[in-house]
Amino acid sequence: MATLIVRFFDAYKIPYPEANVTSTPSDIDSVSDYAKEAVLKLWRCGIFEGSGSGKFNPKQNATRAKAAILSMTIDGIVEKWFVETGRKPAPEEETKEEPQKPDENPQDEPINPVGDSDDDSDRNVVTYTVTFMDGDKQIERFTVKKGQPLSKAPDNSKTAKEGYIFVGWFTDKECTTPFYADDPVTSNVVVYAKYEEIVKEELSITSFSLLDQSPDLSFVVQRIGQGAEDVNNSVILTVMDGSDPVELSIIDNGNDTFTVKGKGWLP
What are the extents of the domains in the chain? Predict the structure, then answer.
């Protein structure tokens, strides 16, 4: 949530509220690396307040009331910005270039894309490139003036990858040093996307309940032991209406499954 809010503010160049918050969340170390910068930015401007004990509590879900308060706060900031500027928000247009693979070892020499201009002031503008990569594949490249922050990154449509979660941008292929778009750019930079594979979890049901079933109810279970005796020791049938316990009949189907039926149920 924090990264989405910061990207929204930065994309539309909406100013953050002025607040005299000098503290940081006491549990900032428990925030994921890719989200720390966004959390700190929203904390210091007063948008995030955390709990009364000074914690951000990143592992907890926000209550409906807190989510409503945050939404109203963001809406108020945007409304104020709209009134003060007198215009509707429009994302900054970005100059897109044809994908190309950058040099393996980019030089720190600045480039000057405005060298053909007749304006002397344009001739003196020093710029650098920031190239965003997914492994050896270029995602996007931006140009920024020397000493200025990039303040943007490829949008979600370009970082999305099926079966993976995008973690963030890093300045090395091993993805150990984070890249911060708010830091001033002083050389040509290549940054790399980090992803984590989505792990699919299998659900193992150890108990279930059935209501209003017919007297000849039976169900099939997968083998969990070497024979019907092991299954019989592992299955417990509880009658919920208070009746006497029902003895179970375990039938080996011969294909690693067993049919469980209750003895004595009346048709």
Answer: 2-85, 120-197, 218-262
Cβ atoms of 104 and 136 within 8 Å: the answer is: no
**Are the CB atoms for 91 and 157 separated by under 8 Å?**
no
Give me the torsion for CA of 62, 68, 70, 71, rounded to 10°.
130
Model pTM? 0.36
- CATH homologous superfamily of domain 120-197? Listeria-Bacteroides repeat domain (2.60.40.4270)
Which tens digits make up the pLDDT trace of 150-203?
988 999 889 988 888 899 999 999 999 999 999 999 999 999 999 998 876 555
Reported as a single tens digit per residue, the pLDDT across 110-163 is 544 444 445 555 567 899 999 999 999 999 999 999 999 998 899 988 998 888
SS3 label, residue 250: strand
